[in-house]
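hi! just following up on the protien thing from before. the input was this:
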Amino acid sequence: MRKRISAVLATAAASAAIVLMTGTAASASTSYAKDVDWNSDPKTCHQAVTGYYSPKVDACYEEDGDILWVLDRQADGYSSRMVWQNLTRGTSGSCVHNIGADKGWAACDFDWPEGDTIVWDISWDTSSGWKSSGRQVYSNA
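and the predicted 3d structure came back as:
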């Protein structure tokens, strides 16, 4: 009887572990950008495309440290963000600038493995939802 109970408990534990690992791998992560008054401008960035009809947000990637920089260009009370996807690992997330346009550049610090391909998109929030600007691929060499 003890062997049967142990087998049932082991099976249940293994099933729970698989479910938890699967959920984590497929999840997207949201990071909130930090105010970076100590360093107000990105040093070396690959500029992203700005808005459809006017520059609402700028964002860029600094390869030294895997830092995403986001600049909210419109003081309208809405957030701006940089959405990323790691095509190599199948992970994704975003860097949300929600501290106000008057704060200037804000940054999120990530740590992607060397050689991974990152696709990123910049967008801004509106009363009718998020508006997107386009995509740019950066290979983390």
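The domain at 28-139 is CATH 2.60.40.10 (Immunoglobulin-like).
The chain has a mean pLDDT of 73.
cheers
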